[in-house]
Each structure stands twice: as structure tokens, then as C-alpha cells.
Amino acid sequence: MNYRHAFHAGNFADVLKHAALMRVLTHLRMKETPFRVIDTHAGAGMYDLSGDEASRTGEWREGIALLTDDPLDGPAEAVLAPYRAALAALCPGPKTYPGSPALIRHALRAQDRASFNELHPGTCVLLRRAMGRDSHLVINEMDGYMAWKAQVPPPERRGLVLVDPPFEKEDEFDRMSAHLAMMARKWPTGTAMLWYPIKNLAAVARFEAAIRESGFSKLLILELHVDRAEDEGPLAACGLAIANAPWKLAEEMQLLLPALAERLARGDVARWRVDPVLEG
User: Which of 78, 113, 239, 269 is the S-S candidate for 223 at Cβ 3.0 to 4.6 Å?
Assistant: First the structure.
């Protein structure tokens, strides 16, 4: 699977990932002590939904576009509020969508910092252009897994590692689980959020079994299915594995995911999963 993000910006997977990201960042902001966010595969920072890549797939029309006009029901919309607020602040028009670096920067306070890592030279140029000059940010043109190993633990000792690989290589699940185990040894109090596509169900099951043995005793698995997950064809399901998730996040996701699944379903499939504690 090749998941070049410009083709998929604003799709259902982004909605899940970014809604959860903004909830985690909201929880980190509840304490005055500083935190750092390490984005291992940062991407371009901002995306033009009217551009060539996004126009070719149109995936945003079955993602963020379905949330634009009508709020979700009751408590689900309250959980979505930080994501909504960030979109309103960051998007100058309806055809612009923020990547994770823009959302992260929006959430930082004066005492917080972020490290954005992007291996592809052209994409890194776009990222630097989108982020501009900001003393709170460090932007590195480097491999995401190398950055993950080198940058934990951060000086702040509080924070989040966001891992959103392109899944261009067959060993992506193995690399993620191995690096999560590394983080458990080096920074056991840090939070990690790992995004993954759900296509090969056997590969996802092996990944979940591996992260159970990572050394983190507290894990949260989130899944959103908008259609039947298949090896071939468009992405229809994705997951987030979160180590050291904020203690109320599972409860919040149990309110949000049913409403997202119903709103974003492509047909008669609308499935979600919140598995709050997996003991290693």
C-alpha cells in the first residue's frame, strides 16, 4: 500500500486520527508543565483539496466534507470540539485541510515544543513553507523511525509521539511495534499514537499481538470502518494504537466513534471499536 498523503487529505482516516490527536493534545494542555510532540512522518503541513492529488481521489468528500454542514448528535459533537476549533482557525477556505503539524502547532502553548520529521526532500520544503519561522518548532529532513529513536525521551519529559507512516514497505507494522518497544524502555511515561490502515486483517492481528508485548501496560485500540476492509481497493478501515492514552480518552471515543461511523459509512457497514486496556 502506498499512502501518499496529498491524495488522501481530509478523508475518513484523517478525521479519526486528527479528532483523536486534538483530544490527546487537549489533555496534555490541562497541566501547566511543558510538553513536546514528536511527529515522525509529518508530511506537508497543509493540503489544497482543490489541487491535483486531492482532486484525483476526492476522498475528502467522504471524510471532512460530510462533517462540514451538520453537527454530530449531542455528546459526540462536544468531543469533536477541539478539532472543529482548529479547523476553523487554520483553514482559510473550504478547500484547505491541515495536516498534523498544523494541528499540533495550533495546540502548543508558549512553554511547549514540537519536532516535525519528514524524509522526502520536496515534502519537507512544503512543510517548512507551511510552518514558517517558529521558535517552538524544529523541522528535520530525516527518517521517521530514526527520529523516533533519537528524540525520545525529550527534555520536557511529557508529551506525545505521533507515528503516521506511508505504508510503502511491507515491514511497516514490524518497524512500528519494534520502535514502540524501544520507547517503552526509553520513555515509559510518554504517550504514543500509531496510525495504521486496516486492509490485511492477519497483518493487523499480528501487529496488535506484538504491541501487547511492547512493555506498555496501558494501551488503547481505536478502529473506524466505513466499509468492508479488503486487501484490494480503496481504504475502508483504519486504526489507532495509543500507548499511555489519557485516562478519559476511551470514554470520549466511545461517545464519538459511533456517530462518526454512522455519518461516514459508505453503505451498510458502519463499525467502530474502542478497546481501552490491553495488558502486556
Answer: 239
Query: Is residue 176 a part of any domain in this protein?
Result: no
Angstrom distance (rounded) from CA 237 to CA 223: 7
- List the grid coordinates of 62: 467522504
pLDDT digits (tens, 9 = 90+) for 134-178: 999 999 999 999 999 999 999 999 999 999 999 988 999 999 999
For residue 162, the Cα-to-chain-centroid distance in whole angstroms is 6
CATH number, residue 106:
3.40.50.150
139, part of any domain: yes
Range of the domain at 226: 5-168+186-275
Residue 98 has which C-alpha cell? 491541515
Question: How far apart are the C-alpha atoms of 199 and 181, rounded to whole Å?
Answer: 24
In angstroms, rounded to a whole number, what is the distance separating the alpha carbons of residues 82 and 85?
5
Asked, for residue 237, whether it belongs to a domain, the answer is yes
Instruction: Tell me how crowded residue 232 is: count the other CB atoms within 10 A of its CB.
Output: 5
Burial 72-95 (b: 16+ CB within 10 A, else e): beeebbebbebbbebbeebbeeeb
Interval 94-138: pLDDT, tens: 789 999 999 999 999 999 999 999 999 999 999 999 999 999 999
97: left (phi over 0), alpha (psi -120 to 50) or beta: beta
Catalytic residue among 14, 112, 164, 227: 164
Confirm whether 164 is a catalytic residue: yes
In 3D, which of 65, 90, 56, 71 has the Cα closest to residue 15?
Answer: 65
In the chain the beta strands, taken as DSSP E runs, fall at 36-39, 46-48, 96-98, 113-117, 137-140, 159-163, 191-197, 219-225, 237-243, 271-275
**pLDDT higher than 80, residue 44:** yes
Where do the DSSP E strands lie in 79-147? 96-98, 113-117, 137-140
Cell of 221: 485500540
